[in-house]
Amino acid sequence: MSRADGGRGRRHGFWRDNSLTLVFGSAFLVVLAGQALAGHAEFNEALAVDGLQRLSLGEYLMSSDFAVDVSENWQSEFLQFFLYIFGTVWLLQRGSPESKELHKAGPESEREQRMGPHARPESPRWAGRGGWRQALYAHSLGTVMACLFLLSWLAQSIAGVAAYDEQQLRQLEEPVGWGAYLASADFWNRSLQNWQSELLAVAAMAILSVYLRQRGSPESKPVGAAHAATGVEG
After folding, report:
1. Are 148 and 78 in contact (CB under 8 A)?
2. How far apart are CA 44 and CA 54, in angstroms?
């Protein structure tokens, strides 16, 4: 069944109404499959060099090497959104659509956020409640992103130490424990090389969107908007 868009205008189908999530979700699965195939080939090449038996694709997908490669990318992405969500509450960039208007720094009033007595009939139920429910819901997006970051970082550390110890054993060296791996250069190199790229991307988007435009995108200001216009989306 189709539904009205926000109760107004033409009715659209499910695919159009959810195309952003569906397209990017499908692209994620395609790219993940490509990564699995490429990683499998590379891993087997390394095993062949060491004179070891090759793994099947299924065995590789269950291996720590595949898990650490996937999780280290996931945790950096969730870190980016966690920092961006919380940072943009207070941090501003004059002229950027990625920033709030300059006079709105901070958590804003209940009226502006449609909370408590200012909630509307269509508002989420917990937005109109007081106490812990409202407080929890008011920070739910950033909190979930923080939890996903920590969980994926934990997964990276567990898979990473397993992959690292396998490499140590192939080189006839002693494996290390999880605690020692957390202090190792390998763990922090994997983490920091992803973090710096995500932070660079956010900074570049914030400043480039001041002066550059993309017609029709909500991530850009309208083409004719002034460079100094802040918090204006196309």
Report:
1. yes
2. 5
- Can you spell out the DSSP letters for 102-132? GGG-SS--HHHHT-GGG--TTS-GGGG--HH
CA-to-CA distance for 88 and 85, rounded, in angstroms?
6
Angle between helices 64-90 and 185-211 (to 10 degrees): 40
| Dist. CA 18–CA 214, nearest whole Å | 21
Confidence of residue 12 (pLDDT cuts 50, 70, 90): confident
**Amino acid in position 26:** S
What's the token pair of residue 211?
A: 């002066």
Helix (H) or strand (E) holding 9: strand 8-12
Q: What pLDDT digit, counting tens, does each position of 141-170 carry?
A: 999 999 999 999 999 999 999 988 888 887
Q: How would DSSP label each residue in 33-96? A: HHHHHHHHHHHHHHHHHTT-PPPPHHHHHTSHHHHHHHHHHHHHHHHHHHHHHHHHHH---TT-
Q: What is the pLDDT of residues 45-97, one digit of tens each?
A: 988 887 888 999 999 999 999 999 899 889 999 999 999 999 999 999 999 98
Question: What ranges do the domains of the chain cover?
Answer: 1-62, 64-234
- At a CB cut-off of 8 Å and minimum separation 6, what does 158 contact? 178
pTM score, whole prediction: 0.81
